[in-house]
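B., you asked whether I could sanity-check this one before it goes into the benchmark set. Here's the sequence:
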Amino acid sequence: MVRPLSRRERISLLLVIGAAGVASVLLQLNAPIGQDVGDSVAALELVAARGGPRREVQGADLTLVVFTDYQCPACKLAHPAMERAVKADGRVRLQYKDWPIFGPMSEQAARVAIAAYFQGIYPAVHDRLMRERRALGRPVLREAVEASGGDWKRIEHDLVRRALEIDRILARNQMDASRLNIAGTPAYLAGPYLVVGALSESQFRQAFANGRRAQKRWRSPT
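And here's what the prediction gave me:
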């Protein structure tokens, strides 16, 4: 029979896990900025796509494709910095790719967010869930939807009625990540410039600049 952990052992274990999480985030923050994937047909198709959740900006000249998970610590860390950089730039549209890789609750949150897309409130729900620090669950998801002006009963209805459509969106997001050889979240495709890992505001701005330069060298698929 396995001996239960003592209180001191539980605290030590939590500290180790917490330290590992911080180390992981720091490693991602210090990772290389990214790479030009302008030769990738998948990247070209992904940036040119117009379906699915997105946030359009008048006069935008760059698309930022965002692969995230609502339970990903690095995604949550990078989100406010991304929003500040996008606002300061003023010419970046966002294409959202929910990629729930942190377990069943991540998938449930992604499904609720996509259901919110059918009500036209996806960007607001996405932002609230990314800034949420409580453990995700039905009450938190409902609060995010309703605080964004959404109808929770319609969300529940669409989760059932449009389940196959939501399945297809999630499957396509996973396929897009695979085609770009992305191993985890967060990941960002700024035009043809791919960045994997959490970024600071200044690093996002640099990614936008790199993306615009790379766009000028973009080759259309044959």
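One thing to flag: The chain has a mean pLDDT of 88. Otherwise nothing jumped out at me.
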